[in-house]
Amino acid sequence: MSDTKGRVKREYEKNLDLVTGLSHRINANPELAFEEYETSAAIVAALESGGEFTVEKGVADLTTAFVASAGSGDLVFGVCAEMDALPGIGHGCGHNVIAASAVGAALALAPFADELGLTVRVFGTPAEESGTGKEIMVNRGVFDGTHAAIMVHPSLKDVVTPQLRASRSWRITYTGRGGHASRPWSALNAADATVVAQTAIGLLRQQLRDGIRVHHVVKEAGSAVNVIADHAVVDCMIRCDTIDEVDEVWERVRRCFDAGAIATGAGVEFTSLPSIYREFRHDQDLAPVFESNAKAIGRTFPDYPDKMFGSTDMGNVSLRIPALHPMLSFDLPTEEGNHTAAFAAAAAGPDGDRFVHDAGLAMALTIAEVAQSEPIRAGLIARAANG
Q: In this structure, what CATH number is given to the domain that contains residue 342?
């Protein structure tokens, strides 16, 4: 096994400049959900450069989604490459380094895939930040026939099995009756409905279990100070340990929004937004293999008291096939974590470059070890056969 790992490592180092450059290119050209045209093309070009991968583009009827495959082994192992950026922030979640490390891992494994009995797949997954592209791909069978999948995400901590939670979002639209502020008695104030709803949600939080999160933002609530708002829009996200719990909490939160409508006389309409992030189920066979390989590279995994992170549509994949989603850290202050401009800048600098090296190499070594571990390999294949 050590000789194989040594060859995989040398192959990874050979491609390191290519994948680091890919990371910088993606970071410099951030593209939003379902619009990752140049990003997707750049990733595909990097994979095709080695001559080992065949690529199917536009999978699941998503223009930027793709599946790249190398090898013909009976163990099919996937690596996910996220692509989209955040509005106004760019790659503040580090998807550029996620994609580049995925490419690096795949390129390092491809020359040895048949020897290892592997089929290596890279899944180009759009719209993680909004739209949950992986949910669409899972539902349309793109991950069918894959025995396991992995990706590594940047954060401020090194954690092998972070707690990644379920979430779902809704849009609430209030319709009132406008009027001049000098004669407000004939109007129905849609903006006031948002105030009542937010107050009710604030009071509800005392009755919610620890860890439940209710996020909301008023997107529209009038346009002039002396005009009663006849229209208001609120987006709401609920985050819990499971998607079933999210739906239970929503029934209580929905009544808070109903209260805004009742109090003001405004009409209210609820729309489910397309993003659905299911809870993550880490595979307990893959986790220790990744941890040992990442430690060998120099990463440490302290026993943090808080291993709770956000939500990801990689959870949607993990409920369908065995999966792992470790976190590797950037060296930044706590207040400059994910979804900040500072994190986006770090993803293009030395922190990002170190992540690309460590995450990609750790994934490649992990997959190589799993392929050579008869118990884990047989277990993954058997689980797929048993449904």
A: 3.40.630.10
- Same-domain pairing of 270 and 285: no
330, 355 Cβ separation under 8 angstroms: yes
Order of all β-strands in the sheet with 267-277: 213-221, 231-240, 166-175, 267-277
Sign of the dihedral defined by the CA atoms of residues 384, 124, 161, 363, in that order: positive
Same domain for 228 and 265, yes or no, is yes
Q: Are 77 and 328 in contact (CB under 8 A)?
A: no
- Same structural domain for residues 147 and 197? no
Contacts of 58 (CB under 8 A, 6+ apart): 65, 66
Domain boundaries, position 106? 1-164+280-385
Single-letter code of the amino acid located at 2: S
Q: What is the spatial distance between Cα 108 and Cα 17, in angstroms, rounded to a whole number?
A: 13
Residues 143 and 179 in one domain: no
Beta strands in the chain (DSSP E): 54-57, 66-70, 75-82, 118-125, 148-150, 153-155, 166-175, 179-180, 213-221, 227-228, 231-240, 267-277, 323-324, 327-329
- Give pLDDT tens digits along the chain (387 positions): 558 999 999 999 999 999 999 999 999 999 999 999 999 999 999 999 988 999 999 999 999 999 999 999 999 999 999 999 999 999 999 999 999 999 999 999 999 999 999 999 999 999 999 999 999 999 999 999 999 999 999 999 999 999 999 999 999 999 999 998 888 898 999 999 999 999 999 999 999 999 899 999 999 999 999 999 999 999 999 999 999 999 999 999 999 999 999 999 999 999 999 889 999 999 999 999 999 999 999 999 999 888 778 899 999 999 999 999 999 999 998 888 899 999 999 999 999 999 999 999 999 999 999 999 999 999 999 999 987
Question: Do 65 and 158 lie in a common domain?
Answer: yes
Strand partners, 119: 76
Count how many domains the chain has: 2
293 in the same domain as 266: no
> Cβ of 198: how many Cβ atoms within 10 Å?
16
> Can you give the pTM of this predicted structure?
0.93
Q: Do 159 and 245 lie in a common domain?
A: no
- Regarding whether 145 and 92 lie in a shared domain, the answer is yes
Residue 63 burial class via C-beta count within 10 angstroms: exposed 0-12, middle 13-18, buried 19 and up: middle
- Of the candidates 259, 277, 295, which is a domain's last residue? 277
